Amino acid sequence: DWTGLNFSSIMEEAEKIKNT
């Protein structure tokens, strides 16, 4: 199950990938 912490981490990673 995806917890809030995981979701936050994934969101940050996704943003970094999109930025690059």
Sheet with most strands: none
Would you report the number of β strands?
0
Overall helicity: over 70%
Low-confidence stretches: none
Question: Strand content of the residues, in percent?
Answer: under 5%
Write the H/E string, N to C.
H
The outline comes out as elongated
Mean pLDDT: 85
Helix and strand content put the structural class at mainly alpha
Radius of gyration: 9 Å
List keywords for this structure.
mainly alpha
Provide a compact summary of the structure:
The protein has 20 residues and is mostly helical. It is 80% helix and 0% strand.
What can you tell me about this protein's structure?
With 20 residues, this protein is mostly helical. It is 80% helix and 0% strand. The mean pLDDT is 85.
Describe the protein's topology.
Layout: H1 4-19
